[in-house]
Design a protein that fits this description.
globular; alpha+beta; 5 strands; 5-stranded mixed β-sheet; Trna Endonuclease, Chain: A, domain 1
Length: 125
Amino acid sequence: MPATRTRRRTGQRFHSGLAAEEIAERAYLDLGGTVLARRWRCEAGEIDLVIALEDCIAFVEVKLCRSPSPDSPVRPRQWARIEAAAGLCLAGATSAPRACRFDAALVGSSGVLTVIENAHMPGLT
């Protein structure tokens, strides 16, 4: 019986995470962004969203949060994995290099989105 509850809880978290990613994606699309990749994976890790904006490419880590906070809940080790994955993503790009940034998109339990642009600055963690 406990295994069933655990599987159900894990499935709920998975679907809640997907819903949070969709909320963040819609917000970036509303800003005129173009989705280059969703849940981009490589040996270094996964990037939730890769978005082309007018002036840069945003690598977005989406987090479902219970309460809003001005601080990014993404830990330095996770940013390091995302940064490494972004490097591989850019290395495989066929277009000209562009500026990039690392954003944290925080989705509250009520669906309210807070985006922290430049939540991570490579080399500063």
